[in-house]
Amino acid sequence: MPMRRPSSLADRLFWPIVAGGAASLWFGPKALAVAGLAVLALVVHRLGRGGRFRRRVRAIARRHRETLALRRRQESYVDPYGNEILDGWLRERSYFAERTVLPRLEAAGYGDLIEPRWDEILDIVEAASLSVAAPDEAEALPEDGLAYERYCAALLERAGWEARTTKAAGDQGADVVAERDGVRLVVQCKRYAKPVGNGAVQEVVAARSYWSADCAAVVSNAGFTPAARKLAAATDVLLLHHDALAALGARPTGRPR
Question: Which of 39, 51, 53, 100 is the most buried (most CB within 10 A)?
Fold first, then answer.
């Protein structure tokens, strides 16, 4: 974040006080009283900026709370020791704050408050991501890989695709092949307890060629490593959480995450 020099209350009051004092020399006590009221109004307005700043951040985050909640689920996972790993989500949270919240605050004249209240902005974004109840998938989400493939195929069917799982042998990296409106999609499914690496991306790239598919995706209940994201961006592969499958359009697009 660029450094910003906060505009102090004294800076904003300096010229009104000087102007009021000068006017009182010409027009007497009434001019001084008017200047005093103007200074008081500035003080009240300035003291209320913090509350208006917080309300604006909440409004921005609230508009995106569904997406934030989804991204929090996608970028978090529980490791084999039972620890909730939030590294990916924390990066996503900062990305949202920097790219979505910060420009709107600067445009509204709150640029001087961004740096001193950065942690407060992140806390508000965090609260928005937790304000949407997560789907109860404790029982629905299969534990083994083959069942997870069928689960993903069913989600694609719900979105209007004709989806089928492939045979374990000879699938050439495609666990699910789906078609809709003349578009063929190959999917590699990973039911993991840790972020998926770039090996899965390599496999689905090969599957896209083998199945003459139009697009390819790696789907997981967990997040993806930086190496997987980099390779997916270079090879035009979608990286998706299974939550996104039920609404996947016939021309799947989007920046791999």
Answer: 53
